[in-house]
Amino acid sequence: MKKIILRTLLILLAFILTVIILYMNYVAPGITGYAAKNVASGVFVAGRTQESIEREDINFFPVKLSRNKVDTENHEATGRFLLWRSKAVYNEGLGCTLVKGFSKKEVEKLDYPEVEKPAGRSDTIPWPAGDMIADTVPAGINLDRLNGILDRVFRDTATFRGTFAVLVVYRNQIVAEKYRDDFKPETKFLSWSMAKSFTNAMAGLLVKEGRLDINAPLNLKEWSGDDRKNITLNHLLTMTSGLEFNEAYSKLKLTDATTMLLKKGDMGDYAASKKLVASPGTRWEYSSGTVNIIQDYIRSVIGNDDDYLAYPAEALFNKTGMRSVVWEVDASGTFVGSSYLYATMRDYARFGLLYLHNGNWLGEQLLPEGWVDYTTTPAVGSDGGYGALFWLNKSGQFPGIPSDMFYCDGYDGQRIFIIPSKELVIVRTGCSPRGTFDWIAFLSGILNSLE
Q1: pLDDT at position 31 over 70
Q2: CB-based burial label for 208 (10 Å; 0-12, 13-18, 19+)
Q3: What separation, in Å, do the N-terminal and C-terminal C-alpha atoms of the chain show?
Q4: Rounded distance between C-alpha atoms, residue 372 and residue 44, angstroms
Q5: How far is CA 429 from the centre of its chain?
Q6: How many CB atoms neighbour CB 364 within 10 A?
Q7: pLDDT band for position 77 (50/70/90)?
Q8: Would you say 80 and 35 are in contact if contact means Cβ atoms under 8 Å apart?
């Protein structure tokens, strides 16, 4: 009898240990991948310290359990948790990439083509093309009130947790620019999902060139045998593709979004492999995966990898004076259109100004005529809350704020607000988990400074 009990206990113990090991093998790559990627990009792209990233950006359970090491000589960072580890590699011009699905050597071979920066020193060129800021202040704004609300945003951490920087452009002029003490104007800040709106711009540029038709099916080979063959670029841009994708973010399990970002080397292929759960164009559901499918598709349309990697700089960033932007790639060499772009506050503001002026930059129409109208048209099923890779306030999500406001929205509180009726662009970056920052008080305070 004792032998039977002992054997049963051993079998039960072995079963429990097997379950634990299988679970850890499933979740540990998320822990170490998130840590390694954020530490690497924070150090090598943003110029921050490892300590600052660990203290703030990745200081949550279970990611904070990762033990991280930065190798400045080889430009890489490693995250370790028990027996598991992940590595992120830095490549000049392309930022940091997790080594997943491809070998470290293959990731290290990713190469950013030579792309000339705009001519001249930015501090000798007037804003917005450069960084020479006018001394005058546009009529219609009370700077005392504006500076008062910004002082409160940085001081009142109970209401406005975790602010890194705020920049306000009114009537095309920077009227306020404030940074936390450990940041400065040259700091590059992570976009998170604001990168989706940059993918919108990339698609718009190619539409203007006649190289993309948003209403034509993508004709992906893997979709040819089922109803996914009816998915168009418009469906992907408006999040109405009907593809299955779990965007939830969980601390203790991996969803489609975190699996894609932390375990897959080709993020677009992973998202494209999902089955159809609704007819294209009939249901809205937020999905980071669809944006990486767009980037895969754009890469195939451009056809040449050097041309693809150079395209955002040549067609958009250089023309608008956005000198700082680093758009990171996955291990396959495709831009992570859903999540990974770094830029300074002023370059994010320039991007906002492009959309404030309907895609026109200092007299040159970069985006197609009507592209911003298309972008801000509510997607089917979004209840006025989403357009084409931009969020909208037509839903009334922000009571008391103009309904024509549209914005880029990134994880942990990265935002570019564009309010055409008030001639405003507002950029805010930080590390503010959902519910820890009062956006209505923030926006209302800035709007109340307008006279």
Answers
A1: yes
A2: middle
A3: 87
A4: 34
A5: 12
A6: 9
A7: very high
A8: no
145/129 Cα distance (integer angstroms): 28
The tokens for 263 are 């375990």
SS (H, E, C) the chain: CHHHHHHHHHHHHHHHHHHHHHHHHHHHHHHHHHHHHHHHHHHHCCCCCHHHHHHHHCCCCCHHHCEEEEECCCCEEEEEECCEEEEEEEECCCEEEECCCCCHHHHHCCCCCCCCCCCCCHHHCECCCCCECCCCCCCCECHHHHHHHHHHHHHCCCCECCEEEEEEEECCEEEEEEECCCCCCCCCEECHHHHHHHHHHHHHHHHHCCCCCCCCECCCHHHCCCHHHHCEHHHHHCCCCCECCCCCCCCCCCCHHHHHHHHCCCHHHHHHCCCECCCCCCCCCCCHHHHHHHHHHHHHHHCCHHHHHHHHHHHHHCCCCCCCCEECECCCCCECCCCCEEECHHHHHHHHHHHHCCCEECCEECCCCCHHHHHCCCCCCCCCCECCCCEECCCCCCCCCCCCCEEEEECCCEEEEEEHHHCEEEEEEECCCCCCECHHHHHHHHHCCEC
Global pTM?
A: 0.95
| Predicted pLDDT at 16 | 62
In the Cβ-directed half-sphere of 404, how many Cα atoms lie within 13 Å? 11
* Per-residue model confidence as pLDDT tens digits over 397-440: 999 999 999 999 999 999 999 999 999 999 999 999 999 999 99
Residue bearing tokens 């540990």: 28
User: Is residue 20 very low, low, confident or very high in pLDDT (cuts 50, 70, 90)?
Assistant: very low
CA-CA distance, 205 to 320, in Å (whole number)? 13
C-alpha distance from residue 261 to each of 92, 97, 136 (Å): 21, 10, 45
Contacts of 249 (CB under 8 A, 6+ apart): 255, 257, 258, 411
**Which is it for the CA torsion 71, 76, 77, 83, positive or negative?**
negative
Q: For residues 416 and 427, give the distance between their C-alpha atoms in angstroms, rounded to a whole number.
A: 5
Segment 249-267 shows an average pLDDT of 87
Q: Which two tokens stand for residue 9?
A: 């206990």
Burial 415-425 (b: 16+ CB within 10 A, else e): bbbbbbebbbb
Cβ atoms of 88 and 99 within 8 Å: the answer is yes
Could you tell me the fold of the domain covering 143-447?
Answer: Beta-lactamase (3.40.710)
Q: Domain residues of the chain, as ranges?
A: 2-108, 143-447
Q: Most distant CA pair in the chain: distance in Å? A: 91
Closest CA to 194 of 55, 82, 336: 336
